[in-house]
Amino acid sequence: MSFETLLFDVQDHVARLTLNRPDSGNAMNAALMRELCDVAIRCDEDPEIRAVVITGAGKMFCAGGDLRSFAAKGDGLAAHLKEITHDLHAAVSRLSRMDAPVVSAVNGVAAGAGFSLACAADLVIAAESARFTVAYTGVGLSPDGSCSFFLPRLIGLRRTQELMLTRRILEASEALDWNLVTRVVPDDDLEAESAKLAAQLAAGPTLAFGSVKRLLLHSSGDHLESQMEHEARCIADAARSADAREGIAAFLEKRAAGFVGK
Question: Residue 187's pLDDT is what?
Answer without folding.
Answer: 98
